[in-house]
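Instructor's aside before we start: the two examples that follow are unrelated to each other. I chose them only because their records fit on one page, so don't look for a connection. First example below.
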Amino acid sequence: MNKYDVKISNRLKRTEGQLKGILKMIADEKECKDVVTQLSAVRSSIDRVMGLIVAENLVDCVKTDMSTGISSEESIQQAIDLLVKSR
């Protein structure tokens, strides 16, 4: 079972606010460089959230996978693959 604490939710809410800000920037025809800078910040924020989720839930995920016959090594590799694939 995955556990998501309040800090993950808060980070995602901040990211949501950033995205809304980017939409406003686009509507206001702000400079491309400024929009891209904010998009980069959103990407970094999402990467941090993904890392937190994997780090905080890895043990539970491995236990769950092992109960279904997946080895701990394979389960950990799957988590790594998810992180690497997203970049």
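Example two begins here.
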Amino acid sequence: MASPEPEAPTPARSRAKDHSPWNWLLFIPIVVPLIPAFFNADSPRLFGFPRFYWLQLAWILLGVGTTTLVYQMTKKRGDR
């Protein structure tokens, strides 16, 4: 019994060529926490925490929200 011919290997995917303008939004969670004016004061306090601590949590939410938005706007609709 003859063995079936091996299938030709599919070419490896090259780098993604996604030049969507939505990707520029990913700079927001990188640049915004680097602005020192946001951390220059102790007040306002939120639940007794100084501004620095609750802003750290806000930056995490900003990053997650921005990344989710960019992903939803740039994912390919036909690919599964």
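The chain has a mean pLDDT of 82.
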